[in-house]
Design goal:
The protein is α+β, with helices and mostly antiparallel strands. The protein is about 40% helix and about 20% strand. Helix 1 runs parallel beside helix 3.
């Protein structure tokens, strides 16, 4: 992330969540006018807020019968639609077919893309982004297997520092995420359980893989398939070759 210090990262997170008191809000707003790094971070939070509001509005106004049709269409949808604004891009109506695509312009399942960015950004908005902090891959692997319930490979990524791991939910299923710092940039590797809905959606998106797209808030999302029902995913501002290299180190 881009905030000028861990202290300001935490204050921006509280401001974003509406937890800052009036005098603290004024301090944050004053700081944003003077600090380009924190202003960039605040813009990311603003985009995330707008996206989440739009997503909730679409869910609230989607009739059950249309929601069922969306669920049936999503696995078969392969087209790439023109990029819209964040609010409109949450769900793009196709008048010609009477249906609704649930894919981002890059072809990834919308709910999965949203989950990935939300977990990544919220984790790194904290001073301590990890539930379990360790730079030892063996310790992180043991924690994930104990707390999440399945075994994962924890890669050593050149140029990056392993921070630890978190539990998260992708498509409602408990999943493992590994957190890294690569220079000044944050990176999260998501390793959903084999055979889970998230893993199957990701593998379908990647095809013969690896494949990258841009999420609804602007983070880069790369996917490496590991068979038809397993995949590893990376989310970051980093360039695609760095993410693809990191994913290649997650051995099948």
């Amino acid at each position: 992330m881009e905030a000028c210090s861990p202290e300001w990262q935490e204050r921006l997170s509280a401001w974003f969540d509406g937890e800052a008191q009036a005098h603290e809000q004024q301090a944050v707003e004053h700081h944003l006018g003077q600090c380009a790094g924190c202003a960039q971070e605040a813009a990311r939070y603003a985009s995330l807020r707008s996206f989440l509001k739009a997503e909730r509005a679409v869910e609230a106004h989607t009739p059950p019968e249309l929601a069922a049709r969306i669920a049936q269409l999503a696995p078969r949808a392969r087209s790439v639609l023109p990029r819209r604004t964040l609010a409109a891009g949450v769900a793009v109506a196709l008048a010609a077919t009477g249906g609704l695509w649930t894919l981002w312009p890059g072809g990834m399942n919308q709910a999965l893309a949203m989950d990935l960015e939300r977990h990544h950004l919220r984790a790194f908005s904290r001073v301590a982004p990890c539930e379990f902090e360790s730079s030892d891959p063996a310790e992180v692997k043991a924690w994930v297997e104990r707390e999440v319930g399945y075994a994962v490979e924890v890669p050593v990524v050149p140029g990056a520092t392993l921070l630890g791991a978190r539990r998260c939910r992708l498509h409602g299923r408990l999943s493992a995420s590994l957190l890294y710092r690569h220079g000044s940039k944050a990176m999260t590797l998501f390793l959903p359980p084999p055979g889970s809905v998230a893993a199957r959606h990701a593998a379908r998106f990647a095809g013969d893989g690896p494949r990258c797209t841009q999420g609804p808030v602007g983070e880069r999302i790369c996917v490496a398939p590991r068979g038809s029902e397993q995949a590893a995913l990376a989310v970051s501002e980093l360039e695609a070759p760095v993410l693809i290299d990191a994913l290649a180190r997650v051995t099948p």
